[in-house]
Design goal:
The chain contains no helices and eleven strands. It is mainly beta and about 110 residues long. The strands form two sheets. Strands 2, 4, 5, 6, 9, 10 and 11 form a seven-stranded mixed beta sheet that branches. A hairpin with a 2-residue loop joins β9 and β10.
């Protein structure tokens, strides 16, 4: 059974940065991709970024050039680094690994 623990959200001003973490257990971490989603009130869940087991990455157009993803297989942890944040990035961010979902961490971008 996959278990995920997220951390790192918060309130940040436009232009600021945050790093989200997602620590997984229950699967061999190095073998699976980690995917980040976000969901804003009244909107559908959106795939934001993914890092595959081989280190390859994918980013939604809305975050390309501002967000990066990384993983530390030794720590079974994935990271979403968010730079140059905009108010429209405000959402609940969730990580997905295997068939499990993180609990979500709120990111609010506001002055």
């Amino acid at each position: 059974q996959v278990q995920l623990v997220e951390s790192g959200g918060g309130l940040v001003q436009p232009g600021g940065s945050l790093r989200l973490s997602c620590t997984a257990s229950g699967l061999t971490f190095s073998m699976y991709p980690m995917t980040w989603y976000r969901q804003a009130p009244g909107k559908e869940r959106e795939l934001v970024a993914q890092i595959r087991s081989d280190g390859g990455t994918y980013f939604a157009d809305s975050v390309k050039g501002r967000f990066t993803v990384s993983r530390d297989n030794a720590k079974s942890t994935g990271y979403l680094q968010m730079n140059r944040l905009k108010p429209e990035d405000t959402a609940l961010y969730l990580c997905r690994f295997g068939d499990g979902w993180g609990q979500g961490t709120q990111v609010t971008v506001s002055s």
